[in-house]
Amino acid sequence: MKALVFHGSGESAWENVTDPGIQDATDAIVRVDAVTICGTDLHILKGDLPEVRPGTVLGHEAVGEIVDVGGDVRTVRPGDRVLVSCITTCGRCRYCREGMYGQCRGGGGWILGHLIDGTQAEYVRVPHADLSTYLLPGAVDSKDAVLLADIFPTAYEVGVLNGRVRPADTLVVVGAGPIGLAAIATARLYTPGKIIAVDLAPARLDAAKRLGADAVAAAGEEAEQLVADLTEGLGADVVIEAVGVPASFEACTRMVRPGGHVANVGVHGKPVTLHLEDLWSKNVTITTGLVDTYSTPTLLRMTAAGQLPTSSLVTHTFPLDAMEEAYDVFSRAADTGALKVVLGAPQHDALTVLTP
């Protein structure tokens, strides 16, 4: 089969690899029908996650059809159309029993495209398939469903829920990429008083406004002044960091009010300064987290009911074998306007550009 293989910092290729097979009785093999590229994949290519070994197939989000299962798999069978979660769940270890699936110690957690071969391929092996795949209703399009594998649960759980967004809150989302936009969309479920989006790209700020941001600003002093102006100098109740660079995290800690919450979602590849000399007396709560995907069934039901603007984040679609082109477009988002790119089979003749 063909797959996108990581070959070290800055190097990857769409090439022939061995087809995956059942290794454990809880495995399933999924034929990939739709897959997307995550900002975390770009971090891997930059060398920010050295634990990813050369030779690994990248990707941790997919929709597809079950083609084979191990002897202990009970809830899915060949022919089923499923969502492949970015988090693999053993269901038995201490963390899984507490609902912290991202910290699974039973052979799960974030392993696809990280510690084992991932989803950016024609087929993928999914361990612990009973708890790590979700049956999809026919009414849910693959382009919508694939965004529930990672970005919507991540934005909702690590951003909105960890940040404790409440009615009438002032919320600032720093970074209006896919995660930031999904945070804006899911935060609206809690009717915050104001949502302020911060980003350097005008196209992303426009997308933020379409998804419900009340005000937008470029990063830097402009954003901090806007937050101060809209809160009478108090600061935001909740600030979500959705970029993953030191400057954006430090800006978040300056924009939050005393007693507020900073929810870090961004993947950081460099050390960040925590200014406790300013924060120690302000009762600020800072949370970090890897998504657990406990919210996926709820988000899936909302998508089926038309209550989440999932596919509005998809700006480009490609055939599966255009993986390298899709990476190029996604990595140059400032030039291409890419938010989420979705690749799918059966293959098509040309790139399709969708209006978000």
From TrEMBL:
Ranges for domain Enoyl reductase (ER)? 8-343
Looking at the keywords, is Oxidoreductase present?
yes
Which Gene3D superfamilies does the record match to this protein? Medium-chain alcohol dehydrogenases, catalytic domain (3.90.180.10), NAD(P)-binding Rossmann-like Domain (3.40.50.720)
Print the keywords alphabetically. Answer: Metal-binding, Oxidoreductase, Zinc
List required co-factors. Zn(2+)
Molecular function GO terms recorded: oxidoreductase activity; zinc ion binding
The record's Pfam families line, in alphabetical order, gives: ADH_N, ADH_zinc_N
For the keyword Lyase, the answer is: no
Protein's recorded name: Alcohol dehydrogenase
